[in-house]
Design goal:
By secondary structure, the chain is α/β, with parallel strands linked by helices. The chain contains 12 helices and 9 strands.
């Protein structure tokens, strides 16, 4: 259902508000550069700092600009099942194609709790669900066995796997079936992830280098693995540099370099990237031929 290069979109702010015109131009650029789907309101989009109205409006704005050219997978997960259902329904109301639902964070549910959480959302959702497993942020980690169970629901169609455990790709493929869509949540592991059965990446780096990330994913889809490896080497320093400070601060700095005038503003508790991080980003952008 979803594949290829899928940027987890940053949210541009100006004067404390969402910069809607900048965001619209950014979405247009992403589509023109070959991105295969779009994820507004994810971690990289600073979703934790958005109000409920901003969340809904940002998804609606993405849908309006995309105009059906690529799918819109809206970030809808919270640590409350009821709130996640509410956000998923709101995303459906404004035209999103799917909901990205993170494993609940902070309250550390059991595997039984995770199964009940995702099943309840799927039962209430008008949209297909992409399970987002990122234990470095959530503490809780959905097991392969639990994912196998929830994947039996017709509306749970994919996983964004940011566990850093590349062996899970094979385990999940065997457990959930070949038709269950697996997307990497780690840019630096996307090559190995796809080699083991993945079909794409929900990416931070694609914010900054959408054409290179799209070409990288297409090379793997076409079986041009030598070319994909060259692109991996070209992009790898950028994958690393974009996490030399709290994300998405380095990504916003990188965007200001490749798209002059793109605002670096973040919302607290996030602050602008450090000078050391900026130097790392500059070197990586130069290595990738982007500046």
């Amino acid at each position: 259902m979803f594949s290829g290069s899928i940027p987890a979109l940053v949210t541009p702010f100006s004067g404390g508000r969402v910069a809607e015109d900048t965001f619209a131009e950014f979405v247009e650029w992403q589509i023109a550069e070959g991105s295969n789907a779009l994820v507004p309101c994810g971690t990289t989009g600073e979703v934790a700092t958005l109000t409920g109205d901003e969340h809904r409006e940002l998804i609606a704005h993405t849908v309006q600009v995309a105009k059906g050219r690529v799918p819109v997978i809206a970030g809808c997960g919270t640590y409350s099942t009821a709130a996640s259902i509410e956000r998923t329904r709101a995303a459906a109301d404004v035209g999103a194609d799917a909901a990205l639902v993170v494993v609940p964070y902070y309250n550390k549910p059991s595997q039984a709790g995770l199964a009940a959480h995702f099943t309840a959302i799927a039962e209430a959702s008008p949209l297909p669900i992409v399970v987002y497993n990122v234990p470095s942020r959530t503490v809780a980690n959905i097991s392969v066995e639990t994912l196998k169970g929830v994947a039996k629901h017709s509306r749970i169609v994919a996983v964004k796997d940011a566990t850093g455990d590349i062996g899970r790709v094979s385990a999940q493929r065997l457990a959930c079936g070949e038709d269950f869509c697996q997307l990497s949540g780690n840019d630096d592991m996307a090559l190995g992830f796809n080699a083991m059965g993945g079909v794409g990446c929900i990416s931070v780096t694609a914010n900054v280098a959408p054409r290179l990330c799209s070409d990288f994913q297409k090379a793997m889809k076409d079986g041009r693995w030598d070319e994909a490896l060259k692109l991996q080497d070209k992009l790898y320093p950028l994958h690393t540099a974009l996490f030399t400070d709290a994300s998405p601060a380095p990504a916003k700095y990188a965007l200001s370099r490749v798209r002059p005038g793109f605002p670096q503003e973040l919302r607290l508790p996030l602050v602008e990237a450090s000078d050391a991080s900026k130097r790392a980003v500059d070197a990586a952008l130069e290595h990738a031929g982007l500046i």
